[in-house]
Amino acid sequence: xxxxxxxxxxxxxxxxxxxxxRLAEAVRRDAPGADVxxxxxxxMAPGLAEAIDAAxxxxxxxxxxxxxxxxxxxxxxxxVPALIDAARARHGGVSIVLQDALGEHPAVLDAMARSLLxxxxxx
Length: 123
Description:
44% of the residues lie in helices and 17% in strands. The chain has 4 helices and 4 strands. It has a 4-stranded parallel beta sheet, sandwiched between helices.
């Protein structure tokens, strides 16, 4: 299994990362032994470059970067590809793939819709 980096925006408030940490723990629970890491664009550590470097240092030859964003905004379309390109230049021979924003996946949208309906008392 490739290393998996869950990439979030980051915030000044450390509590903001708690849902991403729970998500990483859930992935690790369902894929024991998987190399699952968190990385952030700003305000929090590690940054994406550091997380990729650490995954490679840990032996990863394939890395999937999944933006844990609701949609493909400016950061995911412009900023992150530049960070990925720089990491590819540092780590020739390592496959680094940038996935679409997690929030755009149909299963995620369906889960969010179910949650919204439950909260509204419609289910």
